[in-house]
Amino acid sequence: MKKWYFGLVILCMVSLWGCTPAQEVWETVADDEALCASVHTPTFDIRASIPQEAALVEAFSSQYTKVYAQEESGYELTTEIRQARSLDALLLEMTGFSRENLEVIPTSEYHMPRYDLTWTSADEDGFRTCRAAIIDDGIYYYIATSSVPLEQVGETRGLVSGFFDSFGLYNSEGV
Questions:
Q1: What is the rounded distance in angstroms from the CA atom of residue 79 to the CA atom of residue 143?
Q2: Which secondary structure element, helix H or strand E, spans residue 77, and what is its range?
Q3: 67 strand-pairing partners
Q4: Which of 30, 31, 65, 102 is the residue whose CA sits 20 to 30 A from 170?
Q5: CA 11, CA 67: separation in Å to the nearest integer?
Q6: Tell me: the pLDDT tens digits for 79-112?
Q7: What is the Cα–Cα distance from 84 to 137, expressed in whole angstroms?
Q8: Mean pLDDT along residues 124-146
Q9: Euclidean distance between CA atoms 156 and 168, whole angstroms
Q10: Under 8 Å between Cβ of 147 and 76
């Protein structure tokens, strides 16, 4: 009898528990790709020496992204200012590889972190060797990238090196 009585008490508690008044439940939904909106424009602009034969590809360029291409050699040079959740997220989006699978060389420039890296990618025309330099000001990433067909690496080595050697930031105060 005691077992039956105890079971009845449990059943009543469970049924009463389900009869509590409805509470308003709020759920926070976040888009993983959402970034903090910055109230100001980037502090710096990118400077880099672009070879004269590399034309600006206006279809892929915008206020903060400039794409230059040279059809004969097939290389592309890009400068870009953008935000990302983290350096790891930026590297994954840029290269398709996680940071653990890349050889990232950290240095500093203008008292800010700079990261240099290379990787190989494939497209419909074959393999491409890619290189990037990234300067992080804490809000924006300032990025220079090159993409060269594997067969043209030797031919374009000097101009790609010149592009990265000249990569830097400037603002109205002359930094």
A1: 6
A2: strand 75-82
A3: 78
A4: 102
A5: 69
A6: 999 999 999 999 999 999 999 999 999 999 989 9
A7: 12
A8: 96
A9: 20
A10: yes
Backbone angles phi, psi at 108, to 5 degrees: -140, 150
CB 121 within 8 A of CB 96: yes
Q: What is d(CA 20, CA 49) in angstroms, rounded to the nearest whole number?
A: 70
Work out whether strand 65-70 and strand 45-47 pair parallel, antiparallel, or are unpaired: unpaired
Length of the chain (residues): 175
| pLDDT at site 33 | 46
The label of the residue with tokens 């004269």 reads 52
* Type of residue found at 136: D
Q: Which amino acid is at 23?
A: Q
Among 113, 93, 98, 79, which residue's Cα sits nearest to residue 33?
A: 93
In angstroms, the CA 32 to CA 40 distance is 22
